[in-house]
Amino acid sequence: MEIIKYIILGFVQGLTEFFPVSSSGHLSLLQQLFGMSENALLVSVVLHGGTLIALLVFFSKSFSAVVKERNFLAKIILVTLVTGVIGVGGKDFFESIFSSFRWVAGGWVFTGIILISTLFIKKNQKDKFSYSDALILGLVQGFAIIPGVSRAGATIVALLFLGLKKEEAFRISFLASIPAVFGALILEAKDLPLLANTSWLPLVAGFVISFLSGLFTLTLLKKIIQQSKLHYFGYYCLVLGVVVFLFYR
To answer: Is residue 157 predicted with pLDDT exceeding 90?
Structure first.
């Protein structure tokens, strides 16, 4: 049944949007396997909407605090501006490579390498997020638009290497993603065609599942980061990248 495909996609979206393994790469691969190229953009917008709501719910207390902390809010705005410049400036390039499985495979291999590199991080003692950190985070987040590169993975690893404490790296990475994800959704949604003949039940099911699995994943990921086990995702990404490169030409 069609609804089963959307439920699977929603579940995978919720897991891969927050686990550092690249949701765009997994969704692109699954949609091709399911033969769902016709409504690919609509599915992407709906499922990302579900995980965005999960993000807002999970970080609701932190999000309200950020609004009150003008200094921190200014840094998040800087991250968003830098990411936005890269995203808008490189829009044609990113769109041209989005369906290329060679790029997806390369992105997964890159993600795997940087996640495994966290084994070499000795100490994370810094709890102050500086403007230079925000600039670097914005650059990394912009680069992570490349399919197969995990935004969560790249930004969390960057913040860890900058010396931030694990819990702060987790919090800042996802708080900084909210404006970027929201902006990307608006840009995608404006390109949607008229959808009068679209069956909404499968989409609603996918949305709900992506929201619920997203909440579960955020809770689990926080514990994984605290236990310094990000490198396990790195091995998964490396293997997946090599397999996709060999079998999807």
So the answer is: yes
